[in-house]
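Proteins fold reproducibly. Take a sample protein:
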Amino acid sequence: MTLFFYTSNLKKFTYAQSVFTSQTQINLVHKSFDFKELQTDNPQENLLFKLSQIPHVPATNIFIEDSTFHIDALNGFPSLYTKYILSSIGAQGIISLL
């Protein structure tokens, strides 16, 4: 089976490929794709928005890794905004907020 992994992050793909190769008979194929981000606090809504952006590929062949990062001391921040926060204030900025 071939599974298409849509991501603009080559490191995510490389890691996922190593896991899939060692654990399954699935051929993971990288599809470089820079998703538009939905500004929402609902992870499911955000994932469905990302799925709607993928051009005409059967849903059974799609893999999207969409994780969030929550810090209890910051009331769950940065949550779905992790990519933006890391690119703007970085890890040191998050530590400073704590």
